Every structure is written in structure tokens, then in C-alpha cells.
């Protein structure tokens, strides 16, 4: 089984930015934990701050992977283009968020991509990624 994790803008700064919201661990550190826990599956990771690069990655892997776990960051709330890319591929996508976006600013309450995703997981910290992975392997 092959799963791709895609993180969007500013998530390269996890462990450094807004620790009260996102925690103090880098995603790379958490990724090691995920790969150890799910050693029987291949977990690839991609992060970009650029919308077009995220779309290109979806196009590249969207027909050959078993699942995509995506935290589109702020693009969640703005990107019709990413929503269209998700709709265009065969691989199911689960939208994840570290924080509970519904407890934050009102503009974060609307997801442009959710309607094209298999599901949405938010508010469980980094464990949001684990929960999404568990869906794909069960």
C-alpha cells in the first residue's frame, strides 16, 4: 500500500511557528513516528508553499497511490484549483488539519476542498494524520 502525505503552505515551519496552536514538534519528526507505526505501508511525504506545485503533485500521484492525506493549510479556504485537482484524480484524499479550524477565525470554517475529499479530520493535533492513515489501512 502506498500513501502520500501532502502538506501545504507554512507547514514546513511546524515546531517553530505558533506552538500554542500547532505544537512544538516538526512534521519530519512526527513522520518518523508514523513510518515506524505503519511500517507495512509506504508513506511518501511532500510539502510545498506553492499552490501550483501541490496541484502538480496531485496530478503526478493521483492515479497510482492508494490514498492521499492532505493538509492544504491556508489553501484549504481559498483554492478552487486544488479542489478541481482532487476531483480530477482517482486516488481518494482525506483532508486533515492539526487544529480545530471551526474553533478559529471564521474564514477558516469554510473548506474549498472538502466536497472533493473522502472525509475531513480536524482538531486532533498531529494525530489527525494518524487517524487518516488508519482509515486507509482498515
TrEMBL record:
InterPro entries given in the database record: DHquinase_II, DHquinase_II_CS, DHquinase_II_sf
Pathway participation: Metabolic intermediate biosynthesis; chorismate biosynthesis; chorismate from D-erythrose 4-phosphate and phosphoenolpyruvate: step 3/7
Enzyme type, top EC level: lyase
Positions marked as site (Transition state stabilizer): 17
Keyword check for Amino-acid biosynthesis: yes
Record EC number: 4.2.1.10
A Pfam match: DHquinase_II
Sequence positions that bind substrate: 71, 77, 84, 98-99, 108
Function text: Catalyzes a trans-dehydration via an enolate intermediate.
Family membership: Belongs to the type-II 3-dehydroquinase family.
PANTHER family: CATABOLIC 3-DEHYDROQUINASE
UniProt-recorded name of the protein: 3-dehydroquinate dehydratase
Species annotation: Mucilaginibacter celer
Lineage: Bacteria, Pseudomonadati, Bacteroidota, Sphingobacteriia, Sphingobacteriales
Amino acid at each position: 500500500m502506498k500513501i502520500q502525505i501532502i502538506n501545504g503552505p507554512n507547514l514546513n515551519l511546524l515546531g517553530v511557528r505558533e506552538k500554542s496552536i500547532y505544537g512544538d514538534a516538526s512534521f519530519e519528526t512526527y513522520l518518523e513516528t508514523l513510518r515506524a507505526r505503519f511500517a507495512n505501508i509506504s508513506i511518501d511525504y511532500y510539502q510545498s508553499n506553492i499552490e501550483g506545485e501541490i496541484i502538480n503533485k496531485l496530478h503526478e500521484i493521483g492515479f497510482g497511490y492508494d490514498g492521499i492525506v492532505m493538509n492544504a493549510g491556508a489553501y484549504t479556504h481559498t483554492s478552487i484549483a486544488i479542489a478541481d485537482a482532487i476531483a480530477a484524480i482517482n486516488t481518494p484524499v482525506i483532508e486533515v488539519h492539526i487544529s480545530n479550524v471551526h474553533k478559529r477565525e471564521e474564514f477558516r470554517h469554510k473548506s474549498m476542498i472538502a466536497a472533493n475529499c473522502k472525509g475531513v479530520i480536524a482538531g486532533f493535533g498531529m494525530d489527525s494524520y494518524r487517524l487518516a492513515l488508519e482509515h486507509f489501512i482498515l
